[in-house]
Amino acid sequence: MNVVIAGGHGKIALLLAARLAGRRDGVTALIRNPDHADDVRETGARPVVRDLERASVDEVAEVLAGADAAVFAAGAGPGSGVARKDTVDRGASVLLADAAERAGVGRFVQISAMGAGLPPRPGTDEVWAAYVRAKGEAEDDLRARDLDWLVLRPGRLTDDPGTGRVTLAEPEVGRGDVTRDDVAAVIVALLDAPAVRRRTLDLVNGPVPVAEAVAALG
Ligand SMILES: NC(=O)c1ccc[n+]([C@@H]2O[C@H](COP(=O)([O-])OP(=O)(O)OC[C@H]3O[C@@H](n4cnc5c(N)ncnc54)[C@H](OP(=O)(O)O)[C@@H]3O)[C@@H](O)[C@H]2O)c1
């Protein structure tokens, strides 16, 4: 399988790249900072510099040409403000999906977030509200496309070692944590399960082995 990961220097992205490259899948990682290239190469992936707030659809599509799947793992991150929630968490996902369509890549896994698109409670911090809105709009954009999309909504991410056990199901599964390593393991299993498509899935750590959790989705 050939997989393109957007936001390729992100924490989940690096774990995902290492898992895929470790079993000899081809992995291309889109990064915006050339200084991150060596970290990406260490996973076994091929780094390609594309700033997803500046690149054109064609510039991203040319990287996607011939790939089997695209994974959106980018995010503006905790230090960012309202504007970059829109340009990255929404806009970069839309750009990647446009490019996937142009390149004829049908499989698209979007890392979203639990609660995406829910209306903000009164008094919600404006940056958090913008993040939840951007993630919701990115999901809506993807659902309207003729792609084999999957929206994966992790709970709160941790850097703890993977457990190999999760709860993975249509929303809502309830709040909880999930390790980034387990998110990466679930994405690999989903990429191996083409029949699981056009679904929105909450993900937290739980009792079910990853392979069983994905198999149970049918
Ligand atoms: N934190 C949580 O608890 C939580 C919960 C649920 C879902 N999520 C979502 O899960 C996803 C992955 O999380 P993570 O912790 O692995 O993310 P992360 O480590 O913050 O990585 C995000 C990556 O996106 C890249 N990026 C930002 N702007 C970009 C641009 N213009 N062009 C290309 N790449 C760009 C960043 O590059 P730079 O290194 O150059 O900045 C970074 O490498 C994110 O979408 C996040 O919102 C997070």
UniProtKB/TrEMBL annotation:
NAD(P)-binding domain location is 7-194
What domain of life is recorded for the organism?
Bacteria
Gene3D superfamilies in the record: NAD(P)-binding Rossmann-like Domain (3.40.50.720)
- Cross-referenced SUPFAM superfamilies: NAD(P)-binding Rossmann-fold domains
Which PANTHER family is this protein grouped with?
A: FLAVIN REDUCTASE-RELATED, UPF0659 PROTEIN YMR090W
Identification of the protein by name: Nucleoside-diphosphate-sugar epimerase
Species per Swiss-Prot/TrEMBL record: Thermomonospora umbrina
